[in-house]
Specification:
By secondary structure, this protein is mainly α. It is about 80% helix and about 0% strand. The protein has 20 helices and two strands. A two-stranded antiparallel sheet has the order 1-2. It is globular and about 65 Å long. The protein starts with a helix and ends with a strand. The model is unreliable at about 460-480 (pLDDT under 50). Keywords: Cell membrane, Membrane, Transmembrane, Transmembrane helix, Transport.
């Protein structure tokens, strides 16, 4: 494939990813308008977010494997088409049930498209420098897209109405499908007979649905723990199935590949802290400092700009020169500093002095995510690339869901305790957020220790050579050291 065609294909993949990431955050600032217009009962309103999260997070692994079997390009285009059609349904929703159903379909389409995106990317870009740049561009859409979504959601809701936060996906989605048909590589899947582990798929999908439902819905600690126990039993059954099945959904070799398991563990810990950082800082700006939705999005924008500047402008060159492991460690140090600064947030904060430095330090995420993506995909065989991509995206969703659930619960419990002790509401809220940020800093510290001790140093770029035998499926996609 010509160089220009490959970079156009990267643009298609990044645009598809950006749509799904934006849709996960763009809806949050429009929630009050949606509730008023459609008459949502307060307990049901959270399902505008939860329906998307449950479908997206639980179907990623299955979609990744089906992409390997049916064709990754086909899966990406089909997922984008489903997402686009569901966006039209969401934009036209006139009842709560219609919107929730549309959001579930959006999540399913997102899972189909996102699960295979990295798998397509690593087959398009095989040279180390090009792959590093491509992964940096792709990672930027995930790292900064959520913050951009908050700004865009506020603008569209204020200037037009909440329907347009979904309808804006229609031209983008159609253009992505049409351009993708022309530029993405035509790949043939292995066929369903090569690995359609139906029982394993049902077990892991059910386990992830129950786990994400447990942490995404409200119903008390006891109920959440009970659901998590059910999820653990289902996932344990899945693990047993993978060890005994003739064609397992996740072959054990996938997790034994160099760096895959460790990179995904580091990602869970990091995303748990960083996504909760985004959510809780947003709540702090609104509930303590009194910002409205639009000004909150604008206040978060410097973080998106900083992350974008690092991931697009520096990450690829730094990874090429110093190796992904070193840059991952540097990024984790910056993120630890971000959360450590948040621990001292005052009740009456000055944005420039107290908040802006935090947003700029968040640029460390622009180093962390490209490095993790490269490390997680580096040991994947060509026929497993879609599955490894699905695993990587699944652990992203697990980390984000667990982080928000656990840290928000800790913050709420601390706030309730301070209120019971007679502290003013603003003081109590700030105290709760500070505790959550401290725990988040601890999670990042653990991620740093895991990466430092378990990840092997990256091989120098000058000592690698391209795979010469395209039929050698035992050789990983990443370049071998000579």
């Amino acid at each position: 494939m010509a160089i220009s065609a490959r970079w156009t294909a990267l643009g298609v993949l990044a645009t598809g990813s950006l749509m799904t990431v934006l849709d996960g955050s763009i809806v949050t600032v429009a929630m009050p308008a949606i509730a008023t217009d459609l008459g949502f009962a307060p307990p049901a309103l959270s399902w505008v977010v939860n329906a998307y999260l449950i479908a997206f997070g639980s179907l990623l692994l299955l979609a990744g494997r089906l992409g390997d079997l049916l064709g990754r390009t086909w899966m990406f285009l089909a997922g984008t088409a489903v997402f686009t059609a569901a966006s039209l349904l969401a934009g036209a929703a006139t009842t709560p049930a219609m919107l929730i159903a549309a959001r579930f379909l959006q999540g399913a389409g997102s899972a189909m498209a996102v699960a295979v995106s990295l798998g397509i990317l690593v087959t398009l870009f095989t040279r180390p420098a090009e792959r590093a740049t491509a992964i940096a561009v792709f990672s930027f859409t995930g790292a900064a897209g959520a913050a951009v979504g908050q700004v865009l959601g506020g603008v569209l809701t204020d200037a037009l109405n909440w329907h347009w936060i979904f309808l804006i996906n229609l031209p983008i989605g159609l253009a992505t499908v049409l351009l993708g048909r022309r530029t993405l590589p035509a790949d043939r899947g292995l066929g369903l007979r090569s690995g359609a582990d139906v029982a394993g798929a049902l077990l892991v999908t059910a386990g992830l649905v129950v786990a994400i439902y447990a942490v995404a819905s409200s119903g008390g600690v006891a109920r959440m723990l009970g659901l998590l126990a059910v999820a653990a039993a289902l996932l344990a059954g899945f693990a047993v199935r993978q060890a005994t099945a003739r064609t397992p959904l996740v072959p054990p070799r996938v997790l034994r590949a160099p760096g895959v398991a460790v990179a995904n563990l580091v990602q869970i810990l990091t995303l748990a802290a960083c996504f909760a950082f985004q959510v809780l800082v947003t709540l702090y700006l609104q509930n303590v400092l009194g910002y409205d939705a639009l000004h909150t999005g604008l206040a978060m924008l410097p973080a998106a700009v900083a992350i974008g500047a690092v991931s697009l402008g520096l990450a690829a060159r730094l990874n090429a020169r110093f190796g992904e492991r070193r840059m991952l460690l540097v990024g984790l140090v910056l993120l630890f500093g971000t959360l450590a600064l948040l621990v001292r947030l005052p009740v009456h904060a000055n944005y420039v002095v107290d908040v802006l430095p935090v947003m700029l330090l968040a640029s460390g995420f622009g180093l962390v995510l490209p490095a993790l993506a490269t490390l997680a995909m580096s040991g994947a065989r060509p026929d497993d690339a879609g599955l490894v991509s699905g695993v990587f995206n699944t652990t992203q969703q697990i980390g984000m869901a667990l982080g928000v659930a656990v840290l928000s619960t800790l913050a709420a419990a601390r706030t309730d305790g301070l209120l019971a002790a007679g502290r003013p509401a603003a003081d109590a809220l700030t105290g709760g957020y500070r505790l959550a940020f401290a725990v988040g800093a601890g999670l990042v510290a653990v991620a740093f220790v895991v990466a430092l001790t378990l990840l092997r140093p990256s091989a120098p770029r000058t000592t690698t050579a391209l795979r010469t035998d395209p039929n050698d499926l035992e050789q990983p996609i990443a370049l071998r050291t000579v």
